[in-house]
Amino acid sequence: MHRTRIKICGLTRVEDVQAAVVAGADAIGFVFYPNSPRYVTPEQAAALIAAVPPFVTCTGLFVNATPEQVAAVVKVAPVSLVQLHGDETIAQSAAIAAACGRQFLRVFRVKPDTAPADLLEYEQLCRAASPLFTSLLLDTYVDAYGGAGKGFDWSLVPKELAPRVVLSGGLSVHNATDAVVSVRPYAVDISSGVEAAKGIKDARKIADFIAAVRAGDDQLDRATLKEHPHESLA
């Protein structure tokens, strides 16, 4: 059965962590970028992580931080994965991951003139640079760091790359099903699309978003069964 993984990012309150977990999120994200309205201190994140049950991945988002800064944060707030969202080079990203001993997601901010081949080449370079590289996270290029809730042209994502990427940028309950069906990403990542206010999540929106992603999975399963009627999805 098709199962798209789901990450809810930018959590700042324990009730939001609980809402994401109860709704079925596979991962949650904490923002360690001081200029973000979703910023949490390492100590605040540590308290939130303590409320997370096993088998839910905790991710730390950083923007242009040094290896030493990231390692210091991870020592206090034990995230399992670091998400590098700034202008770090591939070599700098590899050095950050090595310094904190964590796998990393490398964010690629997609522009209107980005070619599918650009994404494939960038992923290959990341994979060659570090054994700690795990995936590209595709977000929308805007002047600020982060997708600002804006989407990009999903047709730019190569079909052979899609099963390995995390899709982000402008996702919502209204387009999540279509995103899963048309792109078929490994995972989706949402922040502003499930908020009541910046940094404050809405439990109903989280649950509805996850339901919309699962609806996309169901559509893919039905399509697979139609194409291969003798295969069981159990």
Short description:
Helix 1 packs parallel to helix 7 and helix 6 (176-183) runs parallel beside helix 7. The protein contains 7 helices and 10 strands.
Q: Please tell me the overall pLDDT.
A: 94
Q: What's the shape? A: globular
Query: How many strands, what sense, and barrel or not for the largest sheet?
Result: 8 strands, parallel, barrel
Give start-end ranges of low-pLDDT stretches: none
Tell me what you see in this structure.
The protein is of the alpha/beta class and 234 residues long. The chain is built from 7 helices and 10 strands. The strands form 2 sheets. The protein has an 8-stranded parallel beta barrel with strand order 1-2-3-4-5-6-7-8, surrounded by 4 helices. Strands 9-10 form a two-stranded antiparallel sheet. It is globular, with a radius of gyration of 17 Å. The model has no long low-confidence stretch (mean pLDDT 94).
Question: What attributes characterize this protein structure?
Answer:
single chain; about 230 residues; alpha/beta; 8-stranded parallel barrel; two-stranded antiparallel ribbon; globular
Write the SSE topology.
Elements: E1 5-8, H1 14-23, E2 27-31, H2 42-49, E3 57-62, H3 67-76, E4 81-84, H4 90-100, E5 103-110, H5 116-129, E6 133-140, E7 166-167, H6 176-183, E8 187-190, E9 195-197, E10 200-201, H7 203-227
